[in-house]
Amino acid sequence: MKLANTHISYCTNIHPGQDWHSHFDQLRTHVPAIKEAVSPDAPFGLGLRISAEASEELLKPECLLEFQLWLKRNDIYVFTLNGFPFGDFHEKRVKDMVHFPDWTSKKRKDYTISLFKILAELIPDKGEAGISTSPLSYRFWFDESAEEWRTMRHEATQQIVEVANFLYQKEISTGKYMHLDIEPEPDGVLENVDEFIAWYQEELLPAARAYFEMVAGLDAEQSKHIINRYITLCYDVCHFALAYEQHPEAMKRLEKLGINIGKFQISSALKVQFTDDVADRLHKQKVLEEFDEPIYLHQVIARDKKNELVKYRDLMDALPHIENLDQVEWRSHFHVPIFLEQYGEVSSTQQDILEVLALHKEKERSRHLEIETYTWGVLPPSLQIPIQDSIARELQWLLDELKD
Asked: Taking the C-alpha atoms of 66, 67, 71 and 77 in order, what is their torsion angle to the nearest 10 degrees?
């Protein structure tokens, strides 16, 4: 859907399907009904998630043509892809393996370029589209005090520069503008705005200067222009809420440095506020245990009475500390439906979404907004409603907030 200059949709990583045909079956089952509910008379945008296996199938001309014809018949268009999960994203244990293979691997680069080749076939001439991706790697796979940490960052950054060159050449040859949207998240190598900016300024731009001088004889300003255009930030509101980011300040810093936001992922984290009442804490522990499931990582970032942050790698690691009276708030990496602020005894970071949307309405910061609530299948039963109804309700809530 398009509202003013903003394209709006949801990410299809909520639908299972590791191979293309299985995922396409899910799209044919659900998407037309969702479109009918929220955009019956206008084109409906789609945020597509394609695994590495599915991308190989979709690159086949007959598969791509079938999909293009289906999009046209149903008045649906694709403007963004989720290229973060490489492999299976449902049913099996995902956890930290969502980052595998990471950006040190040629498989990650080749997969991402395959996605861009698909995307280039799906968007119109002079169109714009983006792909979100892993923040280099998973932090705990490396010793930050050892040389392997620096080597990993260097290798990952170099491959991202090569993708920027691919996108630069692609726009020259086709006129289609596509960008790679780096998505910081808890326990990623890049977790927050501070770490993203430091990497971008101190590692990505210098690597690009050396690369583009060598391959094309470009100067520092030219290489910076290429990186600013093609390597952008995926601003996942859930992830930055977990980092307790101050959104106005974060966006001012990005704008001052010329770093673009390629996509806003509109998502909400689980939030719990505590008093010194131990009985109340233990009651909330029982509620939180319903969200402790074995497929995805649900990192917890606690805020204490001094406003300092304490990090736990997963919800199961945090729960034994619930009686720590120094901690006054927990935020957990569990993407909950964006249209609900309160879930009985616990709540969400919906207020962060409202703040980000207000900033976006004040000044357009990206043309792409994508709802990313992928945990429908692992939500506590009390929060589950039919998937099509849930997605349509999220989209309608977002549209209503943007129109206000």
From this structure: -150
